[in-house]
């Protein structure tokens, strides 16, 4: 019942702080015989890596992942895969201010209330830097589900949404926003430039679609596929909302509008709608699994905010230095990783329970 | 790793089907010495009970809960509390149609795809009737957290939202919709009457607020309070979206707008906003915990829907008989129960880890 | 992390006290489609049932098991199987003495120290009566592993061991001691009669052999098959020791004596010794799995024992009335059940992880 | 449900192989604010370290432990503590023989049967080298239970037992056998010299006593303290038997002989015997917890053993090179570590459940 682990049969545990020597993940339960090396994991880390555009934090981290165990002669052995990423650019700055006072919107106060003590350097354990470990673990998970394709992209930044009619998956890699709509990407570049210069921040919505999984994954009633996805996504730093399929919009539809009628198909049913987002009763239906995730605006802003010190006195804090003006952007690779981890886990669980 | 259990230190396991002899929950980990009897649990079951207004299913179930273990001389003993609710009104109707074909929007096809076999009577295990067991377990959880008040209510039905300015908690019990706005309740009565008569269905949004819990509950990074709440809520039948605090709206705010500034307070900080919904970094901040849950419209409607048979042939199905035209309404007591279960669990977990 | 649950993929949770209305088990994770009814479980309960010879407690319990969920049309559905056994013969005796003082050797003092409160009637939750629920759950587990045969028998009572040369499995059902040696059974009858009459008690050793399982079950390093068996057996009431294969005797052998050489066989290796008890590195080798379990003498004896009251005063207690003079005898069916539960769980786990 | 993790609230996960770059443990759930640094863990690793006498493997490993996370300013933060030990002396020898054939008594065949693939270098994951990670984790666990003293020692090697009358705890550190009886240690030195020279091996029995823990730790019925200890000990490499208190000897006692009478004491009861080994009903009684563990003789011996190749052909293998002629000796620090891990876990669990 480690509270720093996630998953059932494919279970990973992460460790590490923003300013410690390294961070990592131990992935347990990976089936044996899968071809793996660092090169298969690195591209996912590179997608999440900071410092690649002016719209993300300028912290320079190579995020090179090392495999320390669980692999022999280029294949997984079935034993725990230990992944380590060294921290390189923990800039030695003056932390005396955040040591004494709580940054509003951050986890500073909550950690102190819980533990009576905290590593205040760069947010410590609560830093989004930990998501590098998730992304590395997600790379392993992908090997477990070669039949599944996963794609995450940003659909909205600061309230400006993409035009669904202009959706082009090939655009996603062409801009620093994981944006599938070239025109929206152009608008976002202008908007983000202003946000960055003013020291403000904005939120974002990330959507993720998984295709290729069969019907039957998911474990009702308390290991439902959608419930596990909700936990996986809500646990990502800065996430405040999760939707499956039509999500909150479904609450505004009638039963007739929300129906996903079924027709005879070549292999299983053919659907002509997917309001359900590929999951019914907590089990996959064979349709694409669709998840949408809301990221709040980064709490670190230049405008001073009223707050209190550890001693309870009034003060103000603002955030100098490096941060993502829109943390949701780099959330896209993290959402992909969590999707992969949940689906891989459920593939194994289904195989164990239903043969 | 039972997939029909939820929770960490306070862990409950449910069992039972819509048309079996009974359903129940085993609640493990309840601290000893708490005063309890059936009378303390029954009011929550009564709130969820069907057949109380014309806007819910007409199935008549007394939903009397029995305590079979874990209690001695009116107090919890620290051993498992077994709760059982007999099914009384499993009307013997003709199930030959749903035995052969899949009801679209229901879990029928997914269960068959997973298990190759299903109890088709009334949805079997996937029936929302199982939520009676959650509500009973939630009643036990409430005893663990007497310092916490939990209130859930419906904020929106079929796209018609309450007026926040008219919010009156005392109204919630005055109408069959758990609606805190008397005028909205009146409108909903008209709307639901039409929905019911036409054999259609609508969705709803339920909001739940917990007050009184201290800062410090929640277990980062993979036992975060918000992630556990997300799993708890998304796992309820018909739920498609979960928000904490401002949720998706936060994605449209700037960092300045979304800030929750802190000021010196009598006991801990005083906040003048709660965009975060009472949780930062997965840990409670001492502010009210706010969760919002989207229920899709009931899939059971009178309009025939195209579907397929188990043999893969085209057919049509429509739902005669008893069902909730808006399953979200009776979702309110279930959301309350899940909130109680998650908070009680985290209280114990925090005590174990941080003393 | 329910502390009243056991298993990983096939996980069961038990509930109930000696003098409550009923006790039961919820078995989760049972694969779908297995043929099952009460009649398939009852024989195992009958084997454990009290009151069948003068050498066991005279409490009269029919121990009729009811299946309340998870089964449809005679087959498992993959959903939780709820099993209930009503308590019938909770004789209303005077418990005022044990309410006030602690029976030495029993769990009375420990429960009070832990919970500050206890159900003192017949030992409450700590009563061996709970093992009826394990045996029922074990009956389900057996359906999961039709390829495995499990046989437990008593090899020693009160220090008097069977003669291995006279081992005859068909004798086990011919005497009330689960004894595979007719001559030993005759001796034990004499010995036990004296023990019973004097109000004393004796210990026993139970051995259990499982054959038919393939090589490859077990999950190193912290889900080893032998470690799980050790936990399963040590958790049975009155058990104080567990051995796999040669156990403690292996500690007195040389490496040459303890070797289990391998030779080419028809399907996998052929072994000509089984010192290891069928498990190497926590994984089954395909040889019979051999476990030996030590039961202490029943703590309930007629000779008064010094003890203290709840208030800390000196007193004496002795046990009148119904109990097993050798609790190890009826331990045999319980050991079988736990073996079945562990093996079935590992079969599913192996299938999940290694396909 | 990681199968490479152990514990409930204090949960550790180990990773690493004999011949990989490193091995380690992630310890989750350690309470915040405990003073810690590498120097507090290293002595335990040093006690287990190979190459310190001629009676252990000559592999030279400094076993320097590094703390990579979870510690700030010399104190635990409540976040995961990542511990890493680099492998230094993975001698590059020729593994072609063990790559092709299975060493009898080792896990080689079982791993291949399970995974279809294995890291054969030095036993891979099944090497006792992994116990270094347990010992490091155990060092953290000790910080959680400062009230408890733990002492493990070898009571028997190759069938030659210590004289209990000569027990002297201060002798344990005076010989390479963790032997509390100076005369036995002298005899063992002679015996082991012969064993070593002949290339044979012998088994051993390790006893471990924990004192200072209060009554009330342990979580019945499937998280019993003794059951968890049994799993913890049986999971150590080469262990084949576990006893609590009198263990198998208790099975040969009468109820009168096995009684642990209670008398009024200064703080709780006073006992004048401890047949139960400090645990009743799965809960600690406040008496010393006593565990005894049987280690089989090391399977690696110079005498060639019949075995088969991966292709199923007959061959013979014998073990050249470095190994422990009595693996039980260095088992003593590992048994201590597992005792610490189980007790620390149960301290937190008890605090969580019973406040």
From TrEMBL, chains A, B, C, D:
Cofactor: FMNH2
Superkingdom: Bacteria
Pathway per the UniProt entry: Metabolic intermediate biosynthesis; chorismate biosynthesis; chorismate from D-erythrose 4-phosphate and phosphoenolpyruvate: step 7/7
GO biological process, one term: amino acid biosynthetic process
EC number: 4.2.3.5
GO molecular function, one term: chorismate synthase activity
Catalytic activity: 5-O-(1-carboxyvinyl)-3-phosphoshikimate = chorismate + phosphate
Keyword Transcription on entry: no
The keyword Amino-acid biosynthesis is assigned to this record: yes
GO cellular component: cytosol
Gene3D superfamilies: Chorismate synthase AroC
Name of the featured protein: Chorismate synthase
């Amino acid at each position: 019942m480690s509270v720093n682990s996630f998953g059932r049969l494919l279970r990973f545990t992460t460790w590490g702080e923003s300013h410690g020597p390294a961070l990592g993940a131990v992935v347990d339960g990976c089936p044996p015989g899968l071809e793996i090396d660092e090169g298969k994991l690195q591209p996912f880390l590179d997608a999440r890596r900071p410092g690649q555009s002016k719209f993300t934090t300028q912290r320079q981290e190579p995020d090179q992942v090392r495999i320390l165990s669980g692999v022999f002669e280029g294949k997984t052995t079935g034993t725990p895969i230990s992944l380590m990423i060294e921290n390189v650019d923990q800039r030695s700055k003056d932390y005396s201010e955040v040591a004494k006072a709580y940054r509003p919107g951050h986890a500073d106060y909550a950690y102190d209330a819980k533990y009576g003590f905290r590593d205040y350097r760069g947010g410590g354990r609560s830093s989004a830097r930990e998501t590098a470990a998730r992304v590395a673990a997600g790379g392993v998970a992908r090997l477990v589900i070669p039949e599944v394709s996963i794609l995450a992209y940003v659909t909205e930044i600061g309230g400006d949404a993409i035009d669904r009619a202009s959706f082009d998956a090939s655009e996603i890699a062409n801009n620093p926003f994981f944006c599938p709509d070239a025109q929206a990407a152009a608008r976002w570049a202008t908007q983000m430039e202003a946000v960055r210069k003013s020291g403000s921040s904005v939120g974002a919505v990330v959507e993720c679609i998984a295709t290729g999984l069969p019907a039957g994954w998911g474990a009702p009633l308390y290991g439902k596929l959608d419930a596990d996805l909700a936990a996986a996504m809500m646990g990502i730093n800065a996430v405040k909302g999760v939707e499956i399929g039509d999500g909150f919009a479904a609450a505004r539809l009638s039963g007739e509008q929300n129906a996903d009628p079924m027709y005879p198909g070549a292999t299983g049913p053919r659907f002509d709608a997917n309001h359900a987002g590929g999951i019914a009763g907590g089990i996959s239906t064979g349709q694409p699994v669709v998840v949408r995730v809301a990221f709040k605006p980064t709490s670190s802003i230049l405008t001073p905010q009223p707050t209190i010190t550890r001693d309870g006195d009034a003060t103000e804090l603002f955030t100098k230095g490096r941060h993502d003006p829109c943390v949701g952007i780099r959330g896209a690779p993290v959402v992909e990783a969590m999707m992969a981890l949940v689906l891989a886990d459920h593939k194994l669980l289904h195989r164990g329970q239903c043969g």
